[in-house]
Amino acid sequence: MQLNWRLKAFNELSNYELYEILKLRSKVFVVEQNCVFQDMDDKDTKCLHLMGFTDNVLVAYSRIVPAGVSYAEASIGRVVTDPDYRSKGLGKELMRLSVEKTIEAYGNLPIRIGAQLYLKAFYESMGFAQVSDTYMEDGIPHIEMVKNN
Question: 4-147 belongs to which CATH class?
Answer without folding.
Answer: alpha beta
